[in-house]
Specification:
single chain; 41% helix; 3-stranded antiparallel beta sheet; alpha+beta
Length: 145
Amino acid sequence: MASGFITLPDGTDWSSRSTGYDLVLEQIMHELSNSDDEGILKNWIHYILPDEENGDIDSGYCFYKNGTESILRILDTRLMHTTFQKLFWNSVQSLSVKLTDETPEGFLVRQLDRCYTNSLLNPYKEPEDPDLNDLLSVGGFKIGR
């Protein structure tokens, strides 16, 4: 059952099991550099990924950071600042060229990229739930618009 969701520009969601969602975000994180805005996005993605070795408790659709702060696996990219949106989707597109469908991460990233490309053919849809913007500021990061 899907428990990780990334909202595309047209308001549709790409979804995967939590492990697939985490795997895709890890790939995007590794694609980003450590400098400037890429470094900020990379550190934020690292923050919103579970680290069970450091006490994070996985609950499927979310996890508890250090056992207390709930991090939902719902990422509405439309709520990201434009700079971070571009970096995020450019990383997905770059990875889609580098990876193949032969690996789980390649299959999922390429699937996300196809969904993103298809979403651009549809009208942009404004976010309906601005409360999801909270994820974009966890850990003191300012990823939201």
